[in-house]
Amino acid sequence: MQPLALTLGEPAGIGPDLALAIWQRRAEFGVPPFYIIAEPDFLGRRAAQLGLRIPIERATPAKAVATFRSALPVATLDLSISAEPGKPDRSSAPVAVAAIRRAVADVMAGSAAAIVTNPVAKNVLYNSGFAEPGHTEFLAKLVQEASGKWLRPVMMLWSPELAVVPVTIHLPLREIFKQLSVELVVETGRIVARDLAKRFGLPRPRLAIAGLNPHAGEAGTLGDEDRAIVAPAVAALVAEGIDARGPLPGDSMFHEAARASYDAALCMYHDQALIPIKTLAFDHAVNVTLGLPFVRTSPDHGTAFDIAGTGTADPTSLIAALRLAARLARATGATAEIAVSDTAS
User: Fold this and answer.
1) Is residue 343's pLDDT more than 60?
2) In terms of residue numbers, what domain contains 218?
3) Handedness of CA 336, 283, 291, 105 (dihedral sign)
4) In a shared domain, residues 261 and 296
């Protein structure tokens, strides 16, 4: 059985708190075996701050599953971590980035079944010279460096209630009109359909594709982008044998009856996708990166500096991310399994 690789994320955030709390209650939560990429002394200090008595052991991925039964396995980075809860410092960015690099190396080497990433603070990374927009793009860059092959990752927010994909992600609204194209919508739809079939076991995924403008452009009276970009993209996807329909008015796509008619909604911009899923599944939605040669999930929340170190952070989304990573890894041939029989400490 291969374990999941869990990155530390921003050390001053709630990621370390959640990892410690979840391991302590691993049987109750029914999470798969994982190891965290961090430093044992740092995690020991954080556990003490949280009032937790948790055995922590250095472990290679190969030994992580056996270690997980009695101690939290830690794959070390040999980096000093000085950040305190809620107070990122100069150690924050190097550690967060190194943990992601290590996780990618492990999963591509076959040592880990999948990657689960704890949240990072983008402003902290940017201030250190980090050049990528976020986790998703950095993961793609690392894969390209290792394989020499270009790929385009796609961000999907998944929950039992709804799965959404923003075609454009972190862009100001005024930039969306410059970036959106028929090719971008088609490529995104292809990746989503392929990974829903391959990873989620849906033989013929149903895609609902939102229009960009109110009322999907109202036949061009509220903007021509839906006729000129979205409709041709939907037609191209259908011609390739993909079950896609649209452009659909964004304001009527997310009620219960509408959601039952599709497996994923492709939305034209960030908030069009994320507002409905965060309304329906704020505490348990999972960020899934499609288009990668391995499974990567992440909780759908940030670093929460204001509550780091208090023990009040809700682990629900990270638990969901761990469980989903194990499920998707099994579907693609890795061997992560849900561990429900370990004895909690």
Assistant:
1) no
2) 161-280
3) negative
4) no
